[in-house]
Amino acid sequence: MFLRKLIAVGAFALMAGVANANEGPLVTTEWLEENLGSADIAVIEVSVNPGVYERGHIPGAVNFAWHTDLVDPVRRDIATREDLQARLQAAGVSDDTTIILYGDTNNWFAAWGAWVFDVYGLEDVKLLDGGRVAWEAEGRPLDSAVPAPAAGTVTLAEANNDLRAFLPEVVAASDSGSHAIVDIRSANEYSGTIIAPEGFQETAIRAGHVTGAVNVPWSSAVAEDGRFKSPDELRAIYAAAGVDGSKPVITYCRIGERSSHTWFALSRILGYDVQNYDGSWTEYGNSVGVPVTNPAGTVWTGL
Amino acid sequence: MVTASFAARRNLWVAAGLALLIVVFLVLIPARDSLNRPLPLSMLLGVAFGALLQRSRFCFWCNYNDFLTDRDPRGLLSILTALAGGTIAYAAVLHGWVPDPFAGRLPPDAFIGPIGLPLVLGATCFGLGMGLTGSCISAHLYRLGEGSVASIPVLVFVLVGFVLGFLAWNPLYLLFGSAGPVIWLPAIFGHGGALALALAGFAALAALLIRFGRFPAPEAPAQPVQPVQAIFQHRWPGVTAGVIVALIAIIAYFRVAPLGVTAEVGSIARTYAAGQGWLPQRLIGLDTLRGCIAVVKETLASRNGVFVLGLVLGAAVAAQIAGQFKPVLPRAVSLPRLAVGGMLLGFGAMIALGCTVGVLLSGTMSGALSGWVFGLFCLLGGWAGGRLRRAIP
After folding, report:
1. Which residue in the list A253, A265, A270, A274 is annotated as catalytic?
2. Any transmembrane segments, and where (chain B) (predicted)?
3. Alpha-helical regions (H) of chain B
4. Which residues constitute the domain of residue A218?
5. 20 to 30 A Cα–Cα from B329, which one of A9, A143, B51, B88?
6. Catalytic residue at A39?
7. Contact B358/B308 with Cβ under 8 angstroms?
8. Under an 8 A CB cutoff, do B96 and A55 touch?
9. CATH code, domain with A191
10. What digits encode the pLDDT tens for the residues B81-105?
């Protein structure tokens, strides 16, 4: 009797273990390699650097260009529902497909893709934990063939703008203290010592941060191997900065993409109520009359 | 008195030393760049390209000048072979990378430049510089390996020319509203159509060269040429060289980046001049483009830097084995010509966003109309430069 019970518990634990591999917001490299080719998943790469996908990608993955597939090329906005739906259908995504996103630079823009998909109501969206960095470091296979999937039938919901913070909401949150505001840029950008990192074209004419924002650089959420830290570690890191989920959260960065990485950690992994401010510092630092804190006192002189 | 066999043995020892140096660099350089591209492969491709340039005298100006002076078409046919072979290979790769060429996307990294006055001006200046200095930038680099001391002042003035190009870029861009439209032929004709059109163009040019060229009468060798001599001492046949250039070009594009030699030179010039505060902080419309374009350097071990290093060392090894390392000092009276020519090469390469390797070879292979336009105006400039050269020391 005891033996039978033990076997039953063991089998249950094993099954739960297998199932858990595909539960939650992240998938592991092992799980993805085992499930490549499954009709239920669509693997999408969103990398920052050109040529990365073409020279070798996870077999069967399709390529989304963040400059054109995830944004509206004219308005400063995320892609329209029609454009994104057509792009996803061409990528073979249907309503019951699990979308797995990954990319270079620690999944920055893959996480941004996850946020855009979330805005349009796609629920079954996961990130490959560690992205390209982990996949390549483990010597897993890459392919240069571009797949031509059969068209999918996914239909997107109208954009849920509750997941986005717009400038007036950020100003209101700063004034009232109703939200925890997380600035994920570098400490030097947050303090106003520099306006933007060296070499970046998109910048602002005021330095500093949104008054009331705390600084937790995006990299704080990443372990040395490129994967997200454990939920407990993440919880402790953000709690130390006063972000414990007791208040809704707004994340921002410079142009609104890297902050999606922190949005993912806080919202999808920790389950907090989080909005991403996609206007970010390039909008805020150029806006007239908004509350700014600039501890470094850097004065913009045109350079 | 140095005997021939002693000289040959010494050359082999020097070649072995240089080959060892290549191995040392291959071990020392980082395995990957920031985009995870293999740097040792990039350097090896440079070694292969340098050795090939040296062995086959694959030099744009020399080949063109052979035709201008003796109507010998073999060199230009070698370039056409490289272009045709490379275009076929690029088409195969791009068909996979950009399955729908009409979608409005360009293949990543390819040298597909804008077509406008900057390209025309740059290509013409580059041609003038080739004619005046007797080589394009890649040939000056491989000739360093042959002991061409004159290439050193030329390459220094190439850097000066690059700085002048950076200074001229913003006014030129604003004067014309942009650098011009970016035209990728497969986006108009499809992959197959663009390939057919390009091959027809190369065939027509080859037919013209054969029709109007004069092939020199073959000299019967005094004794049969051994394979070792054919490879290491004699000049490689043009068609063979062209095929190997195409092969190197497609491996480079497929695994690392398109062939190009000026990105590193341009980056050094830009980094230095920017450090001196000479340059505008931003080059309009340029910093957003990718490809043969000089960016401020962050690291010495760039993919193009190790490629150029490999090119010089590969040419040096080939030249030593062939006994063709012959240091030649330029005459003092030639220095002004070399300086002006070098500046024109650098200025032209900057304004045209690349040179005979990047824009002409890699660009044309990838289906860029800018490659053809560059080729045309580079030939015109080269013709004028060659005539000028005869008139001055």
Report:
1. A253
2. 12-31, 37-54, 75-97, 117-142, 154-176, 182-210, 236-254, 305-323, 335-361, 367-386
3. 4-28, 39-56, 60-70, 74-97, 117-133, 137-144, 151-175, 185-212, 227-232, 238-255, 262-275, 303-321, 335-351, 364-365, 369-391
4. 164-293
5. B51
6. no
7. no
8. no
9. 3.40.250.10
10. 999 999 999 999 999 888 889 988 8
